[in-house]
Amino acid sequence: MRIASFLLFTVAPPLLCTPASGVESLQRRLLRTIQVGASQDISVEQIRKVAENDGTDYTTEILARSALIVLQKDNAKLITYSELLENVLNHLMSDGTPFVTHEGLPNFRGKETVFTMVYALVMSGNQERAVDILEKQSLTGGHYKQAVVLSALRNIGTPRALSIIQKYAEKGPDRNLAEATLADEDFPVLFEIYDRWSLVPPSERTHDNLRKIVQGKCDQRSAVAAYWLGFLAPNPDPNAEVAERQALQAMIRTKTNSCEMMEHVIALKALALRSAESVIFWKTLAESTPNVWERHQVVIDAFGRWGRAFAPAALEMFKTDDAQYVQWELLNGNLETRQGQEYRNYWDIWIPANVLVTLEYDEAQRRGPMEQKEVDAMLDWLDAGGRPRDAVVLNHTLYHLMEFTSGNDTRRVLQILNALPQRNQNWWILQNLQDRSALPLLNYWRTLPAPKDQQEILEHVINSLAAQSKSAPAGKSGSACCEATEKCLLQHVRENAASIAQVEIRSEDEARKWLADRGISERKYTIRYSDALKRSAFVTSGDGGEQGWEYLYDCWRKTGVVPQTRAH
Known about the structure:
The N and C termini lie far apart (about 70 Å). By secondary structure, this protein is mostly helical. The protein has 28 helices and four strands. The longest helix is centred in the C-terminal third of the chain and has 20 residues, at about 450-470. A hairpin with a 6-residue loop joins strand 1 and strand 2. The chain has a four-stranded antiparallel beta sheet, covered by helices on one side. It has helices at about 25-35, 45-50, 60-70, 80-90, 110-125, 125-135, 145-155, 160-170, 175-185, 190-195, 205-215, 220-230, 240-255, 260-275, 280-285, 290-305, 310-315, 325-335, 345-350, 355-360, 370-385, 390-400, 410-420, 440-445, 450-470, 485-500, 510-515, 520; strands at about 525-530, 535-540, 545-550, 555-560.
């Protein structure tokens, strides 16, 4: 594939910028030393002083010790590195404490520290020691710690490391976690890199030498050269920097018997670590790449460097990508970043965790609702005929969107569900539904034949929504937003109108008509506030009906009383 020259000069988003002084932070230089296996703008003596200084913070001390381990220069008088790793694992928390972030290492916390320490052990020839420690820790502590340990074992990739994950699947508390860890493969695994350590010795891992090797024949040696090249700091010579990126791009495009999937994936990682490129660069690359593993890596690279900015392109890729493995990345990236969350970050390009760690932990507990504009973007795409090509991924797309819809938007999602060929076998998709205005349709669906387990799920959803109607304070909607804004007030008013509409659906034709009817959602309302803070409102509908609404207890609630204008 021919890469347009203008794509080489796009501006990277502000992720890992070099300070104006040209000297990277201490922590960044220590990490590069660990990654490359050779000192990077810092001497061994300087690293030792950092490691031995009582005033060094926790994260920096670990980075310094890890650098010494890889350089074969560790101080035997200090706490053993094995004990240090065990201490880190014993203090591992999903919120990142006690690992503070540093300049040049954004979002580098507990999980990343563990992966770096395991990497250091493998690259210093101590992979069995790493496996010993991880095996010992695999069934202790909390679920998050176990998830990180299993990911670290997968990253090592030896038969013994993988067998420990398999044993966890048989005897551990979460079989799904172990199976997902094995299924969510990442290449290359660390033992494969260490086995090829001498193909390009540490003393030869310089900008010019690595670039020349990458520019040569594409094979195992040039692949490991590309691996190390991805870890180097930006080349101070702008022309040389461009040449290095072009060398990596050329490797990605080369297809010979000695330059296949593994070489391409390594080059893709190295390029993304060195350069953000552009959204269109990654999208075009993915669409022209036939290998599923390579496309999967491209999507990780794109979300890792561009985050939410890549989401629209990822939606469009749904139309053409037919690999479920890639489609999960496209879906997860859209859902997470459109909720303001980080999905894949810069460190996932290097050594990612199992995707369940990304989705269920880190900042997942602080995930907020999806903004209306983001819901609209995904629903507009679906309304225009956009669909994931894999039916299972489409089902999960609808399942997740149910959580964020109300009123008109709920009908838009249900309309797609209603058209599914195996609709009655997939009532589980409704489990996130919180909009009780959907009850007329659900009550019709409950009369249709369905597998017993799916019928039970549907009944549970109906009962939950009905109970919500009875127990919720007057006017408090289940899925509408709770901001003190007129937009949110109107959302509650419309959902309330939909929920009290007396409708009985008796046939498929009536169901389709009900789904297509946007009358309640599109009804016009006039709002007059009775206080300066706009927390008490008088709402008049187009048919002359009047309602009183107040913002109470952090949400809009229908009071049933038309408020009187207060004197000021």
